[in-house]
Amino acid sequence: MAPLSGVPVSRCPQPVSPVAGSREVAFGARPGAGSRLRGPCPEPEAVSGARPRKRCGNTALARTCGPTAEHSDFEEGEFVILRRVTSTGVASLACAALVLSAATPATAANVKVGDVQQALEALVKTGHVVGAIGAVYVDGKRIKTGSAGSRLLGGKGGAIPPTARYRIGSQTKAMTATAVLQLVREGKLSVDDKLSAVLPEVAEKDLVERADEITVRNLIQLTSGIPDYLGPDTSSPTRDYRPADLLAASRRNPRPVEVGTFNYSNTNYILLGMIVEKLSGRSLAAELDRRLFAPLGMRATYLPTKATEGIKGPHGHGYAPDASGTMRDADQLNATTMLGAGGVVSTLHDVSAFQRAFRQGRLLPQSLSKLITDPPPGQSPPPSGGPCAGNPEFAAGGGGSAPGFTAATITSSDGRLQFAVSLTLAMDDAERASTPSRITNALKSVFCPAT
User: Fold this and answer.
1) What CATH number does the domain containing 217 carry?
2) Which of 161, 169, 238, 417 has the CA that lies 20 to 30 A from 347?
3) Closest Cα partner for 408 from 4, 2, 62?
């Protein structure tokens, strides 16, 4: 899916861009019970098999202790940045009214957070949700967390650890776009460069129609008119697909719209990942780690690059029906069909760290980040208005979905507050389209406590 954004119900099922120019608000909170602080930097959440965290050091992203593991108390943001993406290549988180704004500005004194555990338990009870984990972060500090349901279908496997990894889906797009725009900032690329000039091989091999008309800007904003690649040609669970294979599958599909017209297609972000690899000389996985994951302390986050590479450590399993309607474990998705469009595996903490850094301008100048957060040409921002007068105003966050899974990260306009949630499901695609509204209800429960 595209960069992060809320999806106005009126525009379903295609995702739309996040709200631009939303009002920023202040947040304040004391460290939650049980948190351990070491000077200005709290201890990171324990994640099995995670990379050792780095000590505080001087980096462009550091503030007091910026790039350390779960970072300074109140930090964490999944994808602080992306504007409109709500669906992932493999499946879309469609029609989610996840962008909320307060009727009046919030202050550090009046921001209230309800019972996250209770909200998740209610969410599981809505039906066909196997398990749910969620957490609220303020200035990088986890102040509320919860886990409901179970790791496996039928109440088996125990609870999902709140620190468990999960697929973030199209939230990946914001990260890929950020890496591309950092290359623009470094003078290695222009958003107006033609695709045929940056990746001449895609034109020479006829992998992308009209590559000489499509710009990097078109790819980021999903206005290239390039068809999606998802379908029978990319459905093998074990084949290691190359990006060129995905482009070839896309090329066999009819062009849905003209260049310059918005159309959600994951192929755009496969191409952006290829651009990152060509200009950096590194794999997309390595470059995302170098530019984002390591500096932001996202030590549990990674981009799988092999078909059978799954989610590390104990985690929730999702389920989807087979041809006979029987629910099958969908834990093993082919990672090579997602890549820069939706392949990242992360945690509540890490995804919140990204969102925080993005919204606070620590990854890109506004002149570039607005290409992710502003609506694409011809699209309107999601409607404003929220359920909690006096509570935080939320900017467009990000969401992603695939068979058996849905995840979302909602962030405040100033990047100080995040609500991250991951659901494992046992439902078909039609019912999965209802999960964004369920997450919205959980959001209201957490941030609109009864007064």
Assistant:
1) 3.40.710.10
2) 238
3) 4
Burial class for 11, CB neighbours closer than 10 Å (0-12, 13-18, 19+): middle
CB neighbour list of residue 195: distance below 8 Å, 6 or more residues apart: 202, 203, 208, 211, 212, 214, 215, 216, 218, 219, 224, 271
Is 310 domain-assigned?
yes
In a domain, 425, yes or no: yes
Q: Does residue 262 have a pLDDT over 80?
A: yes
Q: Is the pLDDT of residue 73 over 80?
A: no
Q: Find tokens 């482009």 and name the residue.
A: 247
Q: How confident is the model over 55-67, as pLDDT tens digits? A: 333 333 232 233 3
Residue 52 lies in a domain: no
Q: What is the mean pLDDT of the chain?
A: 79
Q: Which domain holds residue 233?
A: 9-29+61-447
pTM above 0.85, yes or no: no
Domain count, the chain: 1
Residue 47 domain-assigned? no
CA distance 184 to 216: 10
Write the DSSP string, 102-117.
-SS---TTT-----HH
Quote the DSSP letter at residue 215. Answer: B
Helices and strands counted in the chain (H then E):
13, 11
> Chain-centre distance of CA 23, in angstroms?
22
Contacts of 140 (CB under 8 A, 6+ apart): 42, 70, 71, 72, 73, 74, 75, 76, 352, 353, 356
How far, in Å, CA of 315 to CA of 378, rounded? Answer: 40
